[in-house]
Amino acid sequence: MLCPVNETSPSGYHLAQINVGVLRAPLDDPSMTGFASRIDPINALADSAPGFVWRLVEEGKEDATGMRPFGGGLLINYSVWRDVESLWNFTYRSEHLELLRGRREWFEHLREAYLVLWWVPSGTIPTVEEAGRRLDLLRADGPTPEAFTLRTPFPPPTDRVPHA
User: Fold this and answer.
1) Strand 115-121 and strand 52-55: pairing?
2) What are the start-end ranges of the H helices in 5-152?
3) Quick one: which of 44, 70, 133, 151 could link to 74 by a disulfide (CB 3.0–4.6 Å)?
């Protein structure tokens, strides 16, 4: 899939990320108001953030909250960014941080990895199935250049030093 936003990357790669969560209640439940009422403003903030490239949106909708490609109550957030720094700044240096602080109120605790990052050639968007495979890879092997986290980032492929 081609990327709809013209965000250039000097490395020739963009950073894909997907994170998943199990909601404690349906989005229309009163206990979820603190989360549900922030979805549109946070998505708008992401859309205008420096380094933002793309995010998954359900056809005919403003977000992807109705999509459950991995089953049941597993909510997904899937986006592409110019680089790790852009995603990190949006995640931890914007109003998005308030959502992170309240996540235990709205989401079940997951014992396995729920966020994965990987590099994709600039201008392409990997499929949701590919995102699922990357999450499975991280869960099976831990952080590698093919599937990693914000805590253990890897450089784009063109920046890697070949192993001898």
Assistant:
1) unpaired
2) 33-36, 39-48, 84-92, 96-101, 103-106, 128-141
3) 70
Return the structure tokens found at 58: 């359900």
What pLDDT shows up at residue 75? 92
**pLDDT tens track for 7-31:** 667 789 999 999 999 999 999 999 9
Q: Which helix (H) or strand (E) holds 99?
A: helix 96-101
Between strands 52-55 and 74-81, the pairing is: antiparallel
Question: Within a domain: residue 53?
Answer: yes
Domains of the chain: total: 1
The answer to whether residue 163 sits within a structural domain is: no
According to DSSP, residue 4 is labeled: S
pTM of the model: 0.88
Distance CA 26, CA 88 (A): 28
Q: How far apart are CA 48 and CA 56, in angstroms?
A: 15
